[in-house]
Amino acid sequence: MEINNPIIKGFNPDPSICFDGRNYFIVTSSFEYFPILSIYKSNNLIDWEKVGTVIKDENALDLINIKNSQGLFAPTIRYYEGTYFVVGTNITQGNFICYTKNPEENWSDPIWIDCPFGIDPSLTFIDQTCYYQLTKAGNENEIIQFEINPFSGEILSEIKMISHGNGGRDVEAPHVFKKDDWYYLVLAEGGTREGHMVTIQRSKNIWGPYESHPQNPILTNRNVKLPLQSVGHADFIEDEYGDWWLVALATRPNKHFTLLGRETILLPVEWEKDWPIVNKNGTATSKIVIERSIGKKENKQGTEKPNFFNEKEVKTLALPIDYSFDKKDVTIKNKGSIIKLPKDYGVSYLSVSQADFDFKFSAHLKTSELQNGKFGLMIYKDDVHYCKFGLEKDRSAFSWFVDKQVLDLNIRERKEISSSNSEYVMCLKGNKERYSLSIKNKREKTKTEDSIQTRHFTTEVSSSKFTGVQIGLFVESEIGVTTFYNTEGYYIH
User: Fold this and answer.
1) Model confidence over 6-55: pLDDT tens digits?
2) Distance in angstroms (rounded) separating the CA atoms of residues 260 and 468
3) CATH for 399
4) Residue 401 φ/ψ, nearest 5 degrees
5) Is 305 a domain residue?
6) Nearest-angstrom CA–CA distance, 390 and 374
7) Known catalytic residue: 105?
8) 369 backbone dihedrals φ, ψ, rounded to 5°
9) Which of 14, 32, 170, 189 is catalytic?
């Protein structure tokens, strides 16, 4: 059987995984986007479907006045005795726990934990005891651990340091699991870019002391020329057949520039002398050929995907907005504010994470229905790296416009158009090198075109290092609602 990585494409970093005996669930980071913390489900570890989010109530957690790449950092998901738990960090509030009996439906409100501030929390259940691990904030590379009541957040033991890592920078993402007589402490080191790596330690006692694997790191692509890079932040899982795997984040850079953000990959794990061996040689590959059984469901990976701009996948920037789907018609409540953080109210931008290089995304607007303002499609990486284009109405006059913002450089083009009861088709096409923009009068078949290089939206160029590119619909108008007709997006394979 062949596995193609990433298994979850686009902006889906910091994956954590659990298995309930029937299905596997992955949770990923959401940073400044709402709703919060995506949940994916699979019954064969290969085909993943987004089935919900952990937090849907804007009042349950504070995302007001955050900036790009703030918000929700790396979560962990665990299953224990019929209950699913997610722990996470809101970088402006602290650490919390949510739980549920059904991860596809409503989770509890966040339960805040009175512990030292840090990121990347994790849970381990051993013999009726729940242990909580955390990367403590500071420059000491300190991993701490304590016992906790996972339903109340009450700390039940002394807080102890259990590791300083294995010598790499930015020691984080601790996960502890038990196999046979050993407790294993999985760590991310080297930072989340080119130097990223997975290291591991083990002990006969969950409190340590932990010894390092003599051949750390056990997984990294930092010194190899492979399509996947920045590999790290791993979580281990044993499947229904007793085989071991890990999920991790990785990127697919193009000429050293990363457009799609950090994505989720899957790799096989073997064991030798009670140490894990990842993907045979400790590197991450985009294709894996295995002889394992991997689930009851037929593998559908690589088949044609449906319209990616759908209600299950869309998200908003920091705070929710009012919108509705009627098949391919999308209606958004207008807001006059520009799409920029920080904000203490929602902005009318409805988007999805770009999940592959080659795509086509389009929508129709009817001029007879528009109020004064701007309406169109938008590529958004952060507040100073974006491109929006579409129609602008000023009283009875209409114009086509494109607005390109690259750090402190702004290019704005405007062209008056005929508008009498016209329908315009806006289209955005992407490939590895360039985004192509066009707007066409459906009746007259007149067409205006422009373009912008993808490099402006990459992690290496932009001001937001943790998120991926968003593509979607935007409105900047103070009155009423706007309907985008026949909105659809398809990836081109």
Assistant:
1) 999 999 999 999 999 999 999 999 999 999 999 999 999 999 999 999 99
2) 5
3) 2.60.120.200
4) -140, 155
5) no
6) 7
7) no
8) -105, -5
9) 14
